[in-house]
UniProtKB/TrEMBL annotation:
<feature type="binding site">
    <location>
        <position position="62"/>
    </location>
    <ligand>
        <name>shikimate</name>
    </ligand>
</feature>
<keyword id="KW-0057">Aromatic amino acid biosynthesis</keyword>
<dbReference type="InterPro" id="IPR006151">
    <property type="entry name" value="Shikm_DH/Glu-tRNA_Rdtase"/>
</dbReference>
<keyword id="KW-0560">Oxidoreductase</keyword>
<dbReference type="GO" id="GO:0019632">
    <property type="term" value="P:shikimate metabolic process"/>
</dbReference>
<feature type="domain" description="SDH C-terminal">
    <location>
        <begin position="240"/>
        <end position="270"/>
    </location>
</feature>
<comment type="subunit">
    <text>Homodimer.</text>
</comment>
<comment type="pathway">
    <text>Metabolic intermediate biosynthesis; chorismate biosynthesis; chorismate from D-erythrose 4-phosphate and phosphoenolpyruvate: step 4/7.</text>
</comment>
<dbReference type="InterPro" id="IPR036291">
    <property type="entry name" value="NAD(P)-bd_dom_sf"/>
</dbReference>
<feature type="binding site">
    <location>
        <begin position="126"/>
        <end position="130"/>
    </location>
    <ligand>
        <name>NADP(+)</name>
    </ligand>
</feature>
<dbReference type="InterPro" id="IPR013708">
    <property type="entry name" value="Shikimate_DH-bd_N"/>
</dbReference>
<dbReference type="GO" id="GO:0008652">
    <property type="term" value="P:amino acid biosynthetic process"/>
</dbReference>
<feature type="binding site">
    <location>
        <position position="240"/>
    </location>
    <ligand>
        <name>NADP(+)</name>
    </ligand>
</feature>
<feature type="binding site">
    <location>
        <position position="217"/>
    </location>
    <ligand>
        <name>NADP(+)</name>
    </ligand>
</feature>
<dbReference type="InterPro" id="IPR022893">
    <property type="entry name" value="Shikimate_DH_fam"/>
</dbReference>
<dbReference type="GO" id="GO:0050661">
    <property type="term" value="F:NADP binding"/>
</dbReference>
<dbReference type="InterPro" id="IPR041121">
    <property type="entry name" value="SDH_C"/>
</dbReference>
Length: 273
């Protein structure tokens, strides 16, 4: 195998993963490189052949390839199978092994803060790929009722069916009705892409209080409108960058079989905070 790693997706030029992984390589004095490689939708098979030809050691997978990549794997772990998407691939002498580190990446910041999920009410905004990993995580950790709210009802229903199949206690609420329900939920999670373009919060923050835990998985910008207003109301905040770092650390450990230098990776991302 080569000592090159990559993240594939489209768009990919904004990816923060090369910064994070290359900082870890430098710190551990590993002679490795991590690059961003744009593979447009519809060109995945050719793109993966090219990566195999250069004996890529491993790669991360992001939008739009997380589901399609599953078909090109030789093996996959259970998490990858359950979620139905892959975000980490290890090239084991030509055999591509798939993993999904989004679930652990999502849970890790909650565990680090010693917050209890078991029996807690969860409001999940969004029903895309990331939401699937989050639902899987919340069901695994025995959350209480999980309410899904999403712009497209059809996608919310589909995610509900998936959640029920894996044993979740779930229902769907129309996005317009969510504001009145907020006080009933301990965890309020944004897994929509709202916030990436500095849009206003997808929900009213009026009823968010110090009893709420607000987790916005959008990581760019770090302080979304939802985060800023929830912080003002005294809520416990979990930032999208915390999930990004934890899933990156988990991918790192799959590839390198050694503990990821989390603080170094964090510094590379936040610039010394
Ligand atoms: P996705 O599969 O494309 O899903 C996007 C979700 O956002 C869908 O629920 C979609 O609703 C909703 N949405 C998009 N634009 C909207 C709008 N204008 N109004 C209302 N809803 C809208 O994407 P994904 O992979 O789940 O990622 C979602 C977000 O999470 C992205 O910002 C991504 O960067 C972030 N993310 C962060 C991490 C991390 O480590 N922090 C990891 C993964 C993803 P519809 O169903 O109605 O289209």
């Amino acid at each position: 195998m080569s000592n090159t790693y990559a993240v594939i997706g489209d768009p990919i030029d904004h990816s923060l993963s090369p910064n994070i992984h290359n900082a870890a390589f430098r710190h551990l004095q590993l002679d490795h490189t991590y690059i961003a490689y744009r593979i447009p939708a519809g060109e995945l098979t050719a793109g993966i052949e090219a990566l195999k030809a250069i004996k890529i050691a491993g790669f991360n997978v992001t939008i739009p390839h997380k589901i399609e990549m599953m078909k090109l794997l030789d093996e996959m772990d259970t998490t990858c199978k359950v979620i139905g998407a892959v975000n980490t691939v290890l090239n084991d002498n030509g055999k591509l092994k798939g993993y999904n580190t989004d679930m652990i990446g999502f849970l890790d910041p909650i565990k680090k803060k010693n917050l209890t999920i078991e029996g807690s009410q969860v409001l999940l905004l969004g029903a895309g790929g990331a939401a699937r990993a989050i639902i899987t995580a919340m069901v695994k950790e025995k959350a209480g009722k999980i309410t899904i709210a999403n712009r497209t009802q059809e996608n919310a229903k589909e995610l509900t069916e998936f959640a029920k199949k894996i044993g979740g206690n779930v229902d769907v609420a129309p996005m317009q009705e969510v504001d009145e329900l907020i006080a009933d939920y301990k965890f309020i999670i944004n897994s929509t892409s709202i916030g990436m373009k500095n849009e206003p919060s997808p929900i009213s923050t009026e009823n968010i209080s110090k009893n709420s835990i607000v987790y916005d998985i959008v990581y760019q910008p770090m302080n979304t409108d939802l985060i800023k207003k929830s912080k003002e109301n005294g809520a416990t905040i979990i930032y999208g960058y915390e999930m990004l770092l934890s899933q990156a650390a988990c991918s790192f450990e799959i590839w390198h079989k050694t503990e990821a230098p989390y603080d170094v990776m964090k510094k590379a991302l936040l610039g010394g905070v």
